[in-house]
């Protein structure tokens, strides 16, 4: 017996094309290949257009939906875009679409233009939670589109789509962390929950903001913030990698700065540190890699040892930090990377990869540990 599916829908005319906004349940998609199909790219046969399914992405969605459903918070507001070469019947009176899953009717299987990861995540969600079969999913169906038109829509939806700026994500996590009542939300995706509970995004964003705005900070105005409309000549690095580096190397368990609860004191110490770095490793013209990714990583990597030595001396003055660098340098006169010229744009620091930075940072830490004691006053910033 022929199976006819009926769904409430809104008919939308866009130029010569017709789009139906409706909803399917997860159970509809569980009908499998007779209901929908993902036209995957085959480079040898020159067929298809869909990307390879990211299993981890689909699995993560299924797990998040399953956890959220236990609190009544399962929510997937973005619609899936399906396409068919056929024409779907529409009843103007009842505002319903109707179609057959029989391939001979030329409607099914629908081609998935956008949403294959959501569909696979929903399928796995239903395996974890049988009640999920009744979960409704927003769907848009484009009708009477041939293969070429479907591929075009895939490009329109995906190729020009710009991912959310990662710096913006850091700021949103930071706002969540500080937001009153945020913890009352019944369910959070696991990655948001982890980030807000740890709180390092908020701390790192605050540190970067401080270094970027303080007039006596060497980083003042050099960091392109997530809300800057365009890159300015004075920008040397984006905010995202800076925040990421702060989280990984300054707010890590191995760095004393992470254990300083007074945020103002911690920020001033880090500013003093960069003032000392600037005075020793940057020539007057400022055309340097110190304020680019390689410099950021190197000096953040060695900061834990420098700060630890300052703590031993109970002194965090710029002059003390400078002395620690100088004494370390004296232990190895062949350390070219201790010279400002090595950090000039186009010179040594510009030509090494991450492994090279790590190697030199490790060598410099050994120099600090081997250096003679630097005297200091009582603890002060």
How are the elements arranged and paired?
Layout: E1 4-14, E2 17-25, H1 26-29, E3 36-37, H2 55-69, E4 80-83, E5 89-91, E6 96-100, E7 110-114, H3 116-128, E8 136-142, H4 147-158, H5 166-178, H6 190-198, H7 200-213, E9 223-224, E10 237-238, H8 239-250, H9 263-281, H10 293-313, H11 318-329, H12 354-370
Parallel strand pairs: 3-7, 4-8, 9-10
Antiparallel strand pairs: 1-2, 1-6, 2-8, 4-7, 5-6
Q: What does this protein structure show overall?
A:
The chain has helices spanning 26-29, 55-69, 116-128, 147-158, 166-178, 190-198, 200-213, 239-250, 263-281, 293-313, 318-329, 354-370; strands spanning 4-14, 17-25, 36-37, 80-83, 89-91, 96-100, 110-114, 136-142, 223-224, 237-238. A hairpin with a 2-residue loop joins strand 1 and strand 2. It has twelve helices and ten strands. The radius of gyration is 29 Å and the shape is elongated. Helices cover 42% and strands 13% of the residues. Residues 375-379 have low confidence and may be disordered. The chain has two domains: 4-158, no CATH class; 167-370, no CATH class. The chain has an eight-stranded mixed β-sheet with strand order 3-7-4-8-2-1-6-5. The chain has a two-stranded parallel ribbon with strand order 9-10. It is of the alpha/beta class and 381 residues long.
């Amino acid at each position: 017996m022929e199976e006819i599916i009926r769904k409430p829908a809104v008919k939308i005319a866009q130029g010569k094309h017709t789009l139906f906004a409706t909803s399917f349940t997860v159970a509809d998609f569980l009908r499998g290949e007779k209901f929908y199909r993902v036209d995957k790219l085959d480079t040898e046969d020159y067929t298809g257009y869909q990307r390879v399914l990211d299993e981890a992405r689909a699995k993560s969605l299924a797990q998040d939906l399953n956890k959220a459903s236990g609190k009544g918070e399962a929510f997937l507001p973005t619609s899936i875009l399906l396409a068919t070469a056929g024409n779907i019947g529409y009843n103007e009176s009842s505002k319903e679409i109707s179609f057959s899953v029989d391939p001979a009717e030329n409607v099914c299987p629908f081609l998935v233009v956008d949403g294959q990861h959501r569909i696979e995540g929903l399928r796995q969600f239903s395996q974890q939670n049988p009640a999920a079969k009744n979960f409704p999913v927003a769907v848009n169906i484009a009708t009477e589109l041939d293969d070429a038109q479907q591929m075009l829509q895939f490009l329109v939806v995906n190729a020009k789509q710009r991912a959310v700026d990662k710096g913006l994500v850091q700021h949103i996590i930071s706002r969540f962390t500080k937001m009153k009542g945020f913890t009352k939300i019944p369910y959070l995706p696991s990655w948001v929950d982890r980030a807000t509970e740890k709180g390092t995004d908020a701390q790192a964003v605050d540190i970067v903001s401080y270094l970027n705005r303080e007039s006596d900070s060497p980083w003042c105005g050099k960091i392109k913030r997530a809300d800057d409309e365009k890159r300015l000549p004075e920008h040397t690095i984006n905010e995202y990698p800076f925040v990421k580096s702060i989280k990984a190397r300054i707010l890590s368990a191995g760095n004393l700065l992470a254990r300083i609860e007074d945020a103002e004191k911690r920020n001033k110490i880090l500013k003093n540190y960069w003032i000392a770095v600037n005075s020793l490793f940057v020539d007057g013209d400022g055309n340097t890699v110190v304020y680019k990714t390689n410099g950021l990583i190197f000096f953040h990597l060695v900061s834990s040892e420098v700060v630890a030595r300052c703590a031993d001396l109970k002194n965090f003055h710029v002059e003390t930090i400078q002395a620690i660098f100088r004494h370390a340098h004296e232990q190895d006169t062949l350390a070219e990377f201790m010279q400002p010229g090595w950090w000039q744009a186009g010179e040594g620091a510009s030509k090494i990869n991450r492994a090279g930075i790590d190697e030199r940072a490790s060598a410099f830490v050994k120099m600090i540990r081997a250096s003679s004691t630097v005297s200091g006053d009582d603890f002060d910033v």
